[in-house]
Automatic annotation (TrEMBL):
It comes from Dreissena polymorpha. Gene3D superfamilies: Classic Zinc Finger. GO terms for molecular function: zinc ion binding. Keywords: Metal-binding, Zinc, Zinc-finger. The keyword Transcription regulation does not apply. Residues 20-60, 72-106 form the B box-type domain. It comes from the Eukaryota. This is B box-type domain-containing protein. Transmembrane segments: none annotated. Pfam families: zf-B_box (PF00643).
Amino acid sequence: MEGSIHRGCDFIFDFNCFTCMETYRNTEAEFYCEECSKLHCSKCVEHHNYLYKKHAILGKENISLWPETDVVEQEKCKEHPKEKLTIFCEEHSVLICHVCHFHNHQ
């Protein structure tokens, strides 16, 4: 069995789905909408495309046209910006820092 150190981390993505992040889900984005300037996973892009039929959607084959992200910023806690995300809360399926773990995820 190959460890995540060889294949990368399963919980930190270069691009996260914006809709899923709003509901505290950690889902990898597979599409980018140029009109909305938002990234979507495969499930959320279906809903988006139903509502916004004329929007230009870029898949991963055009990832060079997606906005650049700062992975270092994504590794920081949104509630405690000075803290790194170091713990995965299995109950909530979310990455958290040690401060969140102490206060909200015991």
